[in-house]
Amino acid sequence: MSYKIYLTENWPYERMKRYSGNLTEAMTKIARRFPDDISFETLAKEIASGERQLWIIVDEKENFVAFVTSHIEILASGKKRVELLELAGHGGEKIADMIEPIEEWAKTIGASEICPIGRIGWSKIMRAHGYRPSVVKYRKELNNGRK
Length: 147
Fold this sequence. Notes:
The protein is an alpha+beta fold and 147 residues long. It is built from five helices and five strands. This is N-acetyltransferase domain-containing protein.
């Protein structure tokens, strides 16, 4: 199975409408999985405002497979970084190659680096695409101060 990825920032409503049900389902899924980090409402608002870019991955029949969001960050040095934030849908490892068109887009906007943020389980796949871990985020549940 082959996949394509589209940046949707200039899509008309009619084209987006085709994927609205799948997007809602995938965005709801990711918000439920990470309720402390993102909500459906925040994600939708940031995509609609242009704060995050929405990428849609489709199969050869243009059926929805997954979505990815990106965020353009200006670093203290003035350099531009593209962060890849959310990924939800289906396709697993098979959709990892879709990072290459995002890399090409990042170059066209003058980004000096691209920084996917994801679970540790993606490490092997990301290494195969030339990515290396930069920082590790540790968490410890404090149970809201309760014992």
